[in-house]
């Protein structure tokens, strides 16, 4: 490869290697450029959803279904949408869970990330009334209108407390309330 790189450069030619890993052997590191392609954003996933579903998604569920595929490549999202449609030929609110399960399966294959789906809800958390109120208020900032307006979604949350005080339960409840993976 190193010899080939020198001759290709003289001839103004290139070789493209496509893969999921960006580890380049040290001997080639000066001769190789690495290009990272970002994952699709919400608007791109909305387009993918429209193409995959052929417009069979109710407008009030489009954003929620597309958001459930954030973190997947375009191809993975398209496959998740189509797989969710197999049941009844359309995508609606009930299919969000199907898309999330497919996302969980895809992400789980890498072994680098663990994915937790939650059946908890905000009512299962005792006390923490200020947190519950904030979670319900901030749920609205995930809408496309809020994002278009420039309202930033929460980037994270710090829960601090002694062992057994409900931090993990609160995290699971937040994920379920916002219909986001944990």
Question: Can you give a write-up of this model?
Answer:
This protein is 47% helix and 0% strand. It is mainly alpha-helical and 182 residues long. It is globular. The model has no long low-confidence stretch (mean pLDDT 80).
Topology:
Blueprint: H1 2-10, H2 42-53, H3 59-67, H4 74-85, H5 95-110, H6 129-138, H7 144-149, H8 167-177
Helix pairs in contact: 2-3, 2-4, 4-5
Shape: globular
- What's the mean pLDDT score? 80
Computed structural class: mainly alpha
Q: What share of the residues lie within helices?
A: 40-55%
How many helices? 8
Biggest sheet, in brief? none
H/E topology pattern: HHHHHHHH
From the structure above, extract its key features.
47% helix; mainly alpha; 182 residues; 3 domains
Brief write-up:
Helix content is 47%, strand content 0%. By secondary structure, the protein is mainly α.
């Amino acid at each position: 490869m190193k010899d080939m790189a020198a001759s290709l450069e003289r001839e103004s030619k290139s070789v493209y290697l496509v893969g999921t890993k960006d580890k380049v052997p040290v001997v080639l590191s000066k001769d190789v450029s690495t290009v990272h392609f970002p994952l699709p954003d919400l608007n791109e996933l909305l387009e993918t959803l429209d193409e995959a579903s052929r417009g069979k998604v109710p407008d009030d569920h489009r954003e929620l279904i597309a958001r459930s595929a954030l973190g997947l490549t375009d191809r993975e999202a398209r496959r998740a949408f189509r797989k969710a449609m197999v049941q009844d030929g359309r995508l609606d609110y009930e299919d969000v869970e199907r898309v999330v399960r497919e996302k969980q399966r895809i992400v789980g294959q890498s072994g680098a990330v663990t994915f937790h789906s939650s059946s908890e809800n905000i009512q299962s958390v005792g006390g923490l009334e200020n947190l519950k109120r904030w979670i319900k208020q901030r749920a609205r900032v995930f809408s496309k209108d809020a994002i278009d307006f420039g309202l930033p979604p929460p980037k994270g949350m710090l829960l601090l407390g002694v062992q057994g005080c409900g931090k993990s339960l609160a995290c699971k409840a937040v994920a379920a309330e916002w219909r986001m993976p944990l």
